[in-house]
Design the sequence.
């Protein structure tokens, strides 16, 4: 009899949990969960666009980044080595460096900002034997 009662209550518990989770997901969605933002910086003859999802990035969670690199004539640069280096200057925190992977005319990378706050995200583009090009994006993690 006790077992039957618990079994009858289980769907109620599931409903309660999903109602709470659903509320959180709606808030996250309104806060940019599925949104991609793009920041563009230029340096050393390259124009480097950083797309990141979600926008804003959540501190302590892994975001996904897509980087596109164009040369001074506007042609996509697909043969470079691209590295992503996050730092939080106010706390002297160094984030996890990522080597981006070539994909679809650009480069994919994880982007992990360890906590909420202002971060400097450096993208380093190295092509052949040329000196690396570095650009820095200022991103605020929530
Ligand atoms: Cu910090």
Sequence:
């Amino acid at each position: 009899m006790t077992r039957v009662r618990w079994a009858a209550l289980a769907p109620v518990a599931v409903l309660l949990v999903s109602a709470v989770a659903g509320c959180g997901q709606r808030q996250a969605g309104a806060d940019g969960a599925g949104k991609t933002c793009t920041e563009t910086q230029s340096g050393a003859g390259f124009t480097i666009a950083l797309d990141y999802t979600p926008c804003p990035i959540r501190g302590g969670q892994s975001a996904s980044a897509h980087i596109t690199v164009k040369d001074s004539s506007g042609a996509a640069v697909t043969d470079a080595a691209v590295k992503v280096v996050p730092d939080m200057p106010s706390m002297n925190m160094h984030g996890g460096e990522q080597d981006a992977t070539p994909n679809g005319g650009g480069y994919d990378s994880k982007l992990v900002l360890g906590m909420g706050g202002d971060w400097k995200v450096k993208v380093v583009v190295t092509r052949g034997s040329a000196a690396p090009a570095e650009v820095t994006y200022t991103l605020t993690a929530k």
